[in-house]
């Protein structure tokens, strides 16, 4: 337990962290990788270059300061981050290194404002928070290894099948190289893929949603080929059927509640469709009477994945309604009437599409951040309560709050 004095000191740093948080975490990562370059093997280099990881950590430090007198309030975030840490191989021995480096970054950035009193208080607070992470992640490691078909750290899988789903998305069907069982998972979870492309010094890790229902003898991931994506390019262009990949056991807390029979609305943009495919297929297999509204937005039909599968599911299952929204349909899309809405999802159209979902439906959505901001805002305007709204970021968490002063200059787009 933290003393009242320590809590008071931490609280006093909230305004400073709000202003200088990202500068502190940027310096933190610079120091961390200078002194411990081996940790580059477990960090997403792309998120570092884009500044997403620095911003996410700054937000986490700020949240810890705000809630330092009620740390139980951030326990859900601890568990969410714990899933990612376990899937990446973050271990207890990494926490002292992080704590020491974070305090040094605070001291450098804040200079004289970072008094010994403040640094000692943050050192004490970090120890308490780190212990919470270590405890949660210890349980997660034990569960991942002890479950039927489970394993510790990374395990070799073979690409049994490689299937092109669209111009930009390809599915990889992965089976264990050792021929053993594989762990089941909850719809919406992901696995971490570890690769080391030829010519690169460090291993690269990426988390990809499992895009099919659990219970098969394979895991399926469906990967979008990003133009500057080191791992996605390697998977698309270099990895073939019969090649091996290293995977961590399934993880993640963005999962379908299969204990409920309430109607479900699944909304996705672009490659955000992947966890929704797992959820849709799971409902069809395990809850065939549960009502589903499936809404997917894509740029056009050529980049839309799983369109035929979803259409077939909707045609053969009375409980499933499906809608396709294409921002800029091609001539072929228009000729074949492959969509229900041209353009971005607007409030009026969404209200109509959700008419049959029911007043007690649960909502799950995933996609690019602008798409997610728009969906969250629309659902709020439709009166959907926060406890019925669930979403997942691909990468470090960001804010879905619309910045009011920018709305006129930067309209929400997908």
TrEMBL record:
InterPro entries, per database record: Cbr1-like_FAD-bd_dom, FAD-bd_FR_type, FNR_nucleotide-bd, Globin, Globin-like_sf, Globin/Proto, Hmp, OxRdtase_FAD/NAD-bd
Chain ranges of the FAD-binding FR-type domain: 152-257
Active site: 95 (charge relay system), 137 (charge relay system)
Binding locations of heme b: 85
EC number: 1.14.12.17
Cofactor(s) needed: heme b; FAD
Pfam families, A to Z: FAD_binding_6, Globin, NAD_binding_1
Entry binding sites for FAD: 190, 206-209, 393-396
Site (Involved in heme-bound ligand stabilization and O-O bond activation): 29
GO molecular function (one): nitric oxide dioxygenase NAD(P)H activity
Gene3D superfamilies in UniProt: Globins, Nucleotide-binding domain of ferredoxin-NADP reductase (FNR) module, Translation factors
Family named by the database record: In the C-terminal section; belongs to the flavoprotein pyridine nucleotide cytochrome reductase family.
Protein name listed in UniProt: Flavohemoprotein
Gene name as annotated: hmpA
């Amino acid at each position: 337990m933290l003393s009242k004095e320590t809590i008071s000191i931490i609280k006093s740093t909230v305004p400073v962290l709000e202003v200088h948080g990202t500068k502190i975490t940027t310096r933190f990562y610079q120091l961390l990788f200078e002194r411990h370059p081996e940790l580059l093997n477990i960090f997403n280099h792309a998120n570092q270059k884009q500044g997403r990881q620095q911003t996410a950590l700054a937000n986490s430090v700020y949240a810890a300061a705000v809630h330092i007198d009620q740390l139980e309030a951030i326990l859900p975030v601890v568990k969410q981050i714990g899933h990612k840490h376990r899937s990446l191989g973050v271990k207890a021995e990494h926490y002292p290194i992080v704590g020491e480096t974070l305090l040094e970054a605070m001291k450098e950035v804040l200079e004289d404002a970072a008094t010994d009193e403040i640094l000692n208080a943050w050192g004490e607070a970090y120890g308490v928070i780190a212990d919470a992470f270590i405890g949660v992640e210890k349980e997660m490691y034990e569960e991942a290894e002890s479950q039927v078909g489970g394993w510790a750290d990374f395990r070799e899988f073979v690409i049994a099948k490689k299937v092109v789903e669209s111009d930009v998305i390809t599915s990889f069907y992965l089976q264990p190289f050792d021929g053993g069982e594989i762990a089941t998972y909850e719809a919406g979870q992901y696995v971490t893929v570890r690769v080391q492309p030829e010519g690169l010094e460090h291993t690269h890790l990426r988390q990809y949603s499992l895009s099919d229902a659990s219970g098969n003898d394979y895991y399926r991931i469906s990967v979008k080929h990003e133009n500057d994506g080191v791992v996605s390019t390697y998977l698309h262009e270099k990895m073939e059927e019969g090649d091996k990949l290293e995977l961590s056991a399934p993880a993640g807390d963005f999962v379908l509640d299969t204990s409920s029979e309430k109607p479900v609305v699944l909304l996705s943009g672009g490659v955000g469709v992947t966890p929704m495919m797992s959820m849709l297929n799971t409902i069809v297999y395990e809850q065939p009477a549960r009502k589903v509204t499936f809404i997917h937005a894509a740029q056009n039909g050529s980049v839309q994945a799983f369109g035929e599968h979803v259409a077939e599911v909707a045609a053969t299952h009375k409980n499933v309604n499906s809608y396709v929204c294409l921002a800029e349909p091609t001539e072929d899309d228009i000729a074949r009437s492959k969509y229900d809405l041209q353009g971005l999802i607007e409030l009026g159209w969404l209200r109509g599409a959700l008419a049959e979902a029911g007043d007690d439906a649960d909502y799950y959505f995933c996609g690019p951040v602008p798409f997610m901001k728009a969906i969250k805002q629309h659902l709020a305007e439709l009166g959907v309560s926060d406890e019925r709204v669930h979403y997942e970021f691909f990468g470090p968490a960001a804010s879905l709050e619309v910045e009011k002063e920018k709305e006129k200059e930067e309209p929400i787009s997908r």
